[in-house]
Amino acid sequence: MPIDLGGSGVTGIHVNVYHGVRRLMGLSEKPIRVADYSQMLAEVEKEVLERLNIDVVRIDRVLEPCHPDVNRMGWRIWRNPQGIHIEFPEHLEIVEEAGYYKAYLRGLYSGRMPKDGYYFWWGIHADIKPPLADAKTIEDIKDFNWDQYKFTDEEIENLRKKAEWLYRNTEYAIVLPGVTKIGGLHDAGGQSLRGWDRWLSDLRIRKPLAEAVLDYIMELYRYNIKRILNALGEYVNVAIVAYDDLGTEEGPQISVQTFREFYKHRYEEIISYVKKYSKAFTRIHSCGSIHPFIKEFVDIGLDAIDPVQISARGMDPVVLKRDFGEQIVFWGGGVDTQHILPFAKEE
Questions:
Q1: Looking at the predicted structure, is the pLDDT value of residue 175 above 80?
Q2: Of 20, 57, 80, 197, which has the fewest Cβ atoms less than 10 A away?
Q3: Gene3D superfamilies, per this entry (predicted)?
């Protein structure tokens, strides 16, 4: 069975927990480099990858094994609220303001952490308004700056060099953590652009507006996938094509009928596009109670799904194995990370 730790931003480990893992392994104390500052995820070091027999890595790693150019980046040291010293890129500044730690990415406010927090809030929880929250017409959608979500030639070349280096110098399976800068259609797409509840109402009472948003997102998918995978597709084993939490703790966010009306044919096109330009397996991240959607994903050729939130209603792993075990890969689901890992007794 392949093992993943840190192979993407949705299969990572928090810096505090990683600090404890290193201590249990008897490794020397040192600042922990952050792979994702918003979630405060640690970059898993080479010695830990090897000790735990990890099988996959993501292209944009910031510690060995990685392309040598990464070592030329500048890093800062910051002590988090729990006293762990971490390293983050020099283009990220963390300042103390109004009872929070606030993050500024290249000068742009991008999230905040409570003084006793563990990660940075973003979006409405950080008083950041969704960029299309005030859009009223299809013309408003058209006038939005969609080009900001296109990968530049420089960004693609940077990814290509990193992917080729990993391909030629390691035996790890290589994960492309995203094929577009808008991370999906639903949660990472419409809800991020319009707002969580506003997007749900769009799907019901403002359908032409919702269709327009999704059409522009799909244009970005086509543009980015073709360019990225033409450049580095031969080096990629797994491509994460969407980060769309379709479920809640108790059930799906939307009906299967709504999924079929707005999303299914678009996901199918995304998956077929990835397979057209590469031999990569496709994977979608979707938290929560999503059992009704798994058959829909199987129908359109999705290869794998994560995180498999077995604590959510209807996500019993025995049932999932029975219903879909021969049809799709469950990338996770081996343990209840929501209740057992943080709160259970040792025995």
A1: yes
A2: 197
A3: 3.20.20.210
* 131-347 to CATH, choices 3.40.50.2000, 3.40.50.300, 3.30.980.40, 3.20.20.210: 3.20.20.210
Could you tell me if 288 and 246 are in contact, meaning their C-beta atoms sit under 8 angstroms apart? yes
At position 119, the amino acid (one-letter code) is Y
Question: What beta strand segments (E) does 61-146 contain?
Answer: 75-79, 85-89, 92-97, 100-105, 108-114
Report the C-alpha dihedral over residues 189, 191, 193, 199, rounded to 10 degrees.
Answer: 120
Give the pair of three-digit tokens for residue 275.
Answer: 């397979």
Domain boundaries defined on the chain: 14-53+62-128, 131-347
- Do 167 and 173 meet the contact criterion of CB atoms below 8 Å apart? no
DSSP assignment of 12-70 equals --BHHHHHHHHHHTTPPP-PEEEEETTTTEEPPPHHHHHHTT--EEETT-SSSSS-GGG
